[in-house]
Design a protein that fits this description.
About 35% of the residues lie in helices and about 20% in strands. The chain is of the alpha/beta class. Helix 10 runs antiparallel to helix 17. It is globular, with a radius of gyration of 26 Å. The N and C termini lie close together (about 10 Å). It binds 6-O-phosphono-alpha-D-glucopyranose.
């Protein structure tokens, strides 16, 4: 993963780089570093293990001058997260310095070859190998920095987004990418350039952004037009995009954590997601992708869904919604498994790629494979302009705004909302959903944001309840039907941020294994809302209670039967079965959040995780 930032212009680079790193910290926070090149040609590099704040502490009182610089926040792949392995790396001569996001797969071989040519390595990283290769190329062929980068990149296998500076040419930064995202922001009159892994470090400085494509190299030179070429030095015509990123969405807005802010934003975000799509006056759901690709969508042989993590859970809900309303068979695959499974996929298939970041490496590769095989790709993405969004044939943005907390919350409900709209819109075109059902669901969808607000009012009560659970070691989450993926998602949330082992299971399947774990010390969270499988869930609950398991149940308001069995209950407003995940997941998000806070953990940046997984 990792996040990279670069600046070249007339202002002090240091504060811009640090602010950018904070905004990219969601990508990894094992170590951070910055390289600054000042007017006297002096290159200062500072690195610290851990978060960006550690780097800031270290840099206090140091020389922070320079209007050219690059910086990095790391999620370790090659080599332990220590200071030596932290970026920026320095070439053997001390002239070149570089930051990198991605993995150079043939780094081992290249390292050996370079050692034979007299290069020494300080770190265990693949990044240092690439940097030495650039230096070797420059020395051997007497090339300038841009050409050395191009030639060296032709020799590497793997993924990279890089920014490189040479202390001998202080007016230039070279940036390049393949499979890892990279954006270049262009200031007015080309007087300054901002390089970053996504647009967030650039927002607030300029809204003109160029997203580099695979194997493109950007030459950013002070007071010169941005120049982009391929690795073969072919000129690329680039068009800067006007982006409109609300900077206020990038701060915590008075909440103690991004995660809590994002949980509380859900009513507002889901209204944004439905705006212009759910049209009450016309009693219709209109999605441009469905209008434009009506024939392919309604005549598809089957749908496939590829995704990872929370987005995979949303896909499981999407499958149920589409099969119910559209009567099209749907298969859901982990993108990481799909891409290596020699999948049977081709023309006539529609492959849905679900991704908050739009950059997840496995999902992106699965999409490319599906495209190469002739399938149509439909992206359900949050990050506008991201790689998956760009490579998809069509799609529907979830439009919930930047999600910064590592544990995904509002993206999950946004993805689920998009699936509900899609299933209804496609189902209506296919004639597989009757008008009364369609209108009832359309009406109820609009009530969801208010109903989520009512659940959010219970946040303090859930906080109090969380105190009893913070000391537990294991949890089981059980649900059926539409609530089964919610059980998986609830367990994932708890694992991610509280480091408590939690398993999600289809409730009836519990008796084939997990029930052996149940005792008086094992909290079992049941999703027991008033829907078709309610009676069945009650029986499953009886089985747990009979084994002295402690039941915490999510129930529909006014429920009496579960209350008699469960230790604790959290009520949610009643809704249609097809929309229940949009409500039932919210108390589970709050529960995980409050348990992690009660344990004193870092909710927004849990250990070992990263928000955007751009390595496979
Ligand atoms: C990481 C994040 C998860 C996310 C998953 C898939 O593991 O921590 O929150 O669900 O990647 O990411 P995507 O951006 O493709 O939805």
């Amino acid at each position: 993963m990792c996040g990279i930032v670069g600046y070249l212009g007339y202002r002090d680079a240091y504060p811009i780089l640090i602010k950018g790193l904070h905004r990219l910290e969601y990508r990894g926070y094992d170590s951070a570093g910055v390289a600054l090149l000042n007017d006297e040609g002096k290159l200062n590099i500072y690195k610290a293990v851990g978060k960006v704040s550690n780097l800031e502490k270290l840099a206090v009182g140091q020389d922070q001058s320079g209007s050219v610089g690059i910086a990095h926040t790391r999620w370790a792949t090659h080599g332990a997260p220590n200071e030596v392995n932290a970026h920026p790396h320095l070439s053997q001569s001390g002239d070149l310095t570089m930051v990198h996001n991605g993995i150079i797969e043939n780094a081992g071989t290249l390292r050996e070859q370079l050692k034979e040519k007299g290069f020494h390595f300080r770190s265990d990283t693949d990044t240092e190998v690439l940097l030495q290769l650039i230096e070797y190329t420059r020395n051997k062929h007497g090339l300038d920095l841009a050409s050395s980068v191009r030639v060296a990149l032709k020799k590497v296998i793997g993924a990279y987004a890089i920014a490189v500076i040479d202390r001998n040419t202080p007016d230039t930064i070279i940036a390049a990418r393949k499979s890892s995202p990279l954006a270049v922001g262009i200031g007015e009159d080309n007087c300054e350039f901002f390089i970053a892994s996504d647009a967030s470090p650039i927002a607030g400085y300029t809204n003109r952004i160029v997203y580099l494509k695979d194997e493109e190299v950007a030459v950013c030179r002070r007071d010169k037009e941005l120049e982009v070429t391929t690795l073969n030095e072919d000129h690329v015509d680039v068009q800067a995009k006007e982006i409109d990123l609300d900077v206020s969405m990038l701060d915590k807005g008075g909440f103690p954590h991004y995660m809590l802010k994002e949980i509380f934003e859900q009513p507002h975000c889901l209204r944004d997601c439905m705006r212009g799509r759910v049209l009450p006056a016309h009693q219709r759901i209109v999605l441009s992708a469905v209008t434009e690709h009506r024939e392919e969508l309604i005549h598809a042989k089957r749908y496939l869904m590829v995704s990872c993590g929370t987005s995979w859970h949303a896909a499981l809900i999407g499958k149920q919604l589409i099969e119910q309303f559209c009567r099209i068979p749907v298969e859901v695959a982990y993108a990481s498994e799909f891409r290596y499974s020699n999948p049977v996929v081709g023309p006539g298939d529609v492959v849905f790629a679900i991704s908050q970041s739009g950059e997840t490496a496995d999902t992106l590769s699965a999409v490319q494979l599906a495209k190469n095989n002739g399938a149509m790709v439909f992206g359900i993405v949050n990050a506008v302009g991201s790689s998956i969004a760009r490579v998809s044939d069509t799609g529907t943005y979830i439009h919930v705004g930047p999600e910064i907390g590592v544990a995904s919350t509002k993206a999950f409900t946004g993805q689920t909302t998009v699936f509900a709209m899609l299933a209804l819109a496609i189902g209506r075109e296919r004639g597989t959903v009757d008008e009364a059902t369609y209108l009832e669901a359309l009406e109820e969808l609009q009530q969801i944001p208010d109903k989520i607000s009512r659940i959010l009012e219970q946040s303090d009560a859930i906080r109090d309840l969380a105190q009893d659970y913070a000391g537990k070691r294991n949890f089981l989450y059980l649900g059926r039907g539409m609530n089964y993926p919610v059980a998986l998602e609830g367990a994932l949330k708890l694992k991610e941020i509280s480091y408590i082992h939690a398993e999600g299971y289809p409730a009836a399947e519990m008796k084939h294994g997990p029930i052996a774990l149940v005792d008086e010390d094992m909290p079992v969270v049941f999703l027991a809302t008033h829907h078709n499988l309610y009676e069945k869930i009650l029986s499953n609950m009886q089985e747990v209670v009979a084994r002295r398991g402690k039941v915490l149940a999510i129930v529909t308001e006014g429920d009496e039967q579960v209350r008699r069995l469960a230790d604790k209950v959290i009520e949610i407003p009643s809704t249609l079965n097809c929309l229940v995940p949009l409500l039932s997941v919210v108390p589970l998000q709050l529960l995980a959040y409050h348990i992690a806070v009660a344990k004193g953990l870092d909710v927004d940046q849990p250990r070992n995780l990263a928000k955007s997984v751009t390595v496979e």
